[in-house]
Amino acid sequence: MPLETIRWNERGWIELIDQTLLPNELKYIACRTVEEVWEAIKTLRVRGAPAIGIAGALGVVLGIWRSEARSYDEFKAELDRVADYLATSRPTAVNLFWALDRMREAAERNKDKPIPELKKLLLKEALDIIEEDKRICRAIGRNGARLLPDECTVLTHCNAGGLATADYGTALGVIYAAVEMGKRIKVFADETRPLLQGARLTAWELMQGGIEVTLICDNTAAYVMKQGLVDCVIVGADRIAANGDTANKIGTYNLAVLAKEHGIPFYVAAPSSTFDLTLESGDQIPIEERSPEEVTCPFGRRIAPEGVKVYNPAFDVTPARLITAIITEKGVIRQPLHENIPKILNACP
Ligand code: MRU
Question: For ligand 1, is residue 50 a contact (CB within 6 Å)?
């Protein structure tokens, strides 16, 4: 059974796997206040675009659960304050803003209901997002798995697995689905500096699932490709612009360039909630910059001189032209991406 990354406790709080403790400790922690949810997102206790969206939606529920508002307007003002605050936690993954907007819209749709009922409907909306994510990731998995040969080695970056979603994953979902279809899949996992999501999370998650994984340093990717050891690259996404430019974990762009040079297909796997069609190109995607200490003092140990200048963007943007196809729950979007994105996304509800 896949692990649940994040869930609602009926006693009125959120429980989530504290991913900063992995792989050494698998532990659920409770978030009992909106501030704790914000902190959990900011510090990557919960991370990965779809999981951040789920945390945002449940965070809204937590924020209004004990509301004593007497009118809808008062209630909605409280909800908006909570959603606006959660929106300041991390800027790049559009799934957070998508989920917060969905919660605002659910409140508006039900504005005539008594407030106790409205609270329950908002909880239902957040739980629906979780259930939909489980279904969507499995559909992404099925659509992507068909692209893989019966026997192949996939290189992936960061963690776009069960831990980054409700329970199954996008890029790793493709691998799980292929294995479920009987294909023989091996994986190279980039360690993913500076926070090592590949080493700490992807390697752990794939080993839990019994999938053969080999961990490599980020700077080993070119060499394994040159040796002919990689059949395709599959990564997740934090935001995809209308032209197909894709923001994902820093270092993804490097891999796309390398894949092109070595003639290896480069796939992005993402749900439709990761598309931001209001942005024409990736130049408009806000890129989170994180603290210098993540680079100079990873996991509490200083590895660079005190006072050194650091640049630490958490994401980069892979130009659409380097992407072979984007695998979504609605189908596989091939080149030309800017033309095919609306066709596939609008094909079914
Ligand atoms: O900083 P993180 O760990 O939240 O970054 C995560 C990624 O870049 C993932 O690849 C992306 O969110 C897709 S998760 C299905």
Answer: yes
